[in-house]
């Protein structure tokens, strides 16, 4: 692809193109920065302004060498350069939208008694309404994560959240348990979109050093929502019935959908650049391609290429889950903890309503301990971000991923402490505040472990983070769906003490994981195909950015997609495997290599001697005919092998050499 700079467009083309852009879209220009209007930012993803049109792009503008489109040095459409207030508004809306999904998953439990009475079903069947909602959390990310890479986060969120709201509203009118359960499954599937993509929105806008606080705010939602759900659902269900629980949830999510449509723009850089390139092509009549798509420009017309990429993106989370030890172990740990959280939504009614005689509304208040623990943990994570910033400064601005594990090490201790405490103080003879405080310790440890391990995975896998988080989400959602199903049976058969002790032992078994990763994580990552490749890509991008900063104006960091990163990982992995095999063969066959060297030198000398021999039988030599004689050995030309050996020995004596080649045939 050519690197010739784009010539200035003809005056007529430039004037016509500029006229296609509304003057209202450009509020002001300050040192090369275009400040576009709010609604243009939200509804015009291409960000096409006069300055974008007049910018000089590398390339020729032809089908063979298109102009390569990247963000301008100071680009108002670059999510990394959004104003701080805009970043935080978007973060808050995404966090609340995620909270609403988690709220919907557990608010149902507040009206579960009315569901049992209205449909005349068992408690176990009614609990399936919670489990299938969480199963939707496992199904949805496998679809929404790869689709967001091709179509953007904005359109996927707008579409799925609208459908999520519709299924919540439909649940309010369900006339049988089958309809209610199916609607809740689809509500969970479509509602899982913000659980998967909202974290990506934050990564799109915030740098690694800023991401800690933003991630802390966002991560409050998936844990605070389940704690608030039973409280609101309990009182609302007792007063108005379970249908109003579903109805209020639909109203809540509907209002949030409208707010997000009006205030949340597209933030995924590859999609923004792709739309800008398409718009530039349409306006100017020349060929433009985004920086992300430039390497694959020659294959743009290949049939089924996009579908192949989507299939690859859907398979990649499973590959990462089962081939990367860090992803597998952290996902197992987080899945156990997440399953325990949802187990409590079935266990708390047993402990506080059946054994203590509390009403559904008052029984929901038992989750206040969980909510307080979540808030304390998030507050501490924000405080710990200062420590991380100092450690990053000590490492030249980029801290190793293991620096994220400090909170996880604290949380891994709090988890079994809180669970054992709850297990053996939840009987009616002990004051009710004691097990509630214990649940706060569990919730605090849960959030510390989750936030720490989540950011550790993001920092370790960077360009593969979306697939890693998708695989993590699937596994923990499956655990979250399964644990409530056997909770009732377990508490009936084992009693409230031992049934609560089982997850405590699981948490105790997983407690060493953060400490092991802190100690050996760097070595493990370098042996992992995807983690090592992600580290190499990020190092290369930072090196290029540093070189660009030293040479002139700061250029945006190179945008790498997961497909491009995986292709590089495959190549580098093959290189490493080949080098490893060669190294092992070298160690095993060092003596054989010496013999091979002697053979190579002998054959080289022999070829030189043969070149000096008169060729009296060209036909035989060209055809490879080598007549043999029992007495004289193999004949080559007019000389036998014995004669050649004699000549070589004579020359070696003349040169003072003594190579014993008698064993070489």
UniProtKB/TrEMBL annotation:
GO terms for cellular component: plasma membrane. It is found in: Cell membrane. Residues 608-618, 639-657 have a biased composition (Basic and acidic residues). SUPFAM superfamilies: MFS general substrate transporter (SSF103473). CDD domains: MFS_Tpo1_MDR_like (cd17323). GO terms for molecular function: transmembrane transporter activity. It holds the Pfam family MFS_1. The chain crosses the membrane at residues 88-113, 125-144, 150-170, 217-238, 244-265, 326-352, 358-383, 403-424, 430-451, 463-486, 498-518. Residues 90-527 form the Major facilitator superfamily (MFS) profile domain. It is a multi-pass membrane protein. The keyword Cell inner membrane does not apply. It comes from the Eukaryota. InterPro entries: MFS, MFS_dom, MFS_trans_sf. PROSITE patterns: MFS. Residues 1-32, 573-665 are annotated as: Disordered. Keywords: Cell membrane, Membrane, Transmembrane, Transmembrane helix, Transport. Residues 1-11 have a biased composition (Pro residues). Belongs to the major facilitator superfamily. DHA1 family. Polyamines/proton antiporter (TC 2.A.1.2.16) subfamily. This is Major facilitator superfamily domain-containing protein. It comes from Lasiosphaeria miniovina.
